[in-house]
Amino acid sequence: MAVLLITSCVNTKITNYYGTPRLIENSGILILPTKGIAGYWSQQLYEQTKAQFKDTEARLFYLPEEEYNLIKAGISKDMLDHLTLSDTITLAEISEHLGVRYIIGAQVNNLQQGANYGVYTENDLNQYNSPYNTDNESNKADVLFDIYHVNSRSIEAKFLVHTSINPLIIQEDEGSESRVNVTDQMTALYDAYKKAFSMIKKGMVAAK
User: Fold this and answer.
1) CA nearest 168: which of 194, 200, 138?
2) In what order do the strands lie in the sheet with 117-120?
3) Which of 52, 82, 108, 112 could form a disulfide with 140 if both were Cys (CB 3.0 to 4.6 A apart)?
4) What is the structure's pLDDT at 207?
5) Whole-angstrom Cα distance, residue 58 to residue 40?
6) What residue ranges in the chain does DSSP mark as E strands?
7) Within a 10 A sphere around the Cβ of 43, how many other Cβ atoms?
8) Hey, where are the domains in the chain?
């Protein structure tokens, strides 16, 4: 299984809509829950990111973990539950209490679960048999990221990360083939999220 996972083809593409992440390395960064997935999975993505940044000077915060203290500080739970990056006044209050400079939001735009295994004859693979030539065994994830700068009260960078994990293709006799993919859509999501924060981490600049 490990060999199949390694030989599966992972493709990730990052599309910048505007701006380039250039976070000051010793800053506080608040990560909002990822929209479009269950809270448990969002928490796991944050834990992955926290591990990625453990060797940096950045201070990471996750909104659900700070909720109790923020409510005590006077910010309503309803406001926190429905917080968006357009709520500039509330974001300024949160930033003041937590000491963060940046707030990062993520939205899952697409998750595609492929089959684990498929067998195709030579006729199936004919270019005119489109149902057989689609990515039936591929797992895909599209995640949109916004980086909000508290001081300017604006989104300074927006980009989309697309990850596709394609199957291992095994050529069989008489022109047929088997396709095997032991990953799932969440594997693609984790990879997309990790690649996004790897780019953010790589682009961090030293404090002046």
Assistant:
1) 138
2) 117-120, 177-180, 168-171
3) 112
4) 80
5) 24
6) 9-18, 28-31, 59-62, 102-112, 117-120, 139-149, 154-166, 168-171, 177-180
7) 15
8) 15-113+138-166+187-202
Determine whether domain 15-113+138-166+187-202 maps to CATH 3.40.50.10610: yes
Contact between 157 and 146 (Cβ < 8 Å): yes
Residues in the chain, how many? 208
Report, as ranges of residue numbers, the positions in the chain whose pLDDT lies below 70: 1-8, 130, 132-133, 208
DSSP letter, residue 24: B
Burial class of residue 35 in the structure, from the number of CB atoms within 10 Å of its CB (0-12 exposed, 13-18 middle, 19+ buried):
middle
* pLDDT (0 to 100) of residue 1: 39
* pTM of this structure: 0.89
3-class secondary-structure state, position 8: coil
Report pLDDT for 120.
87
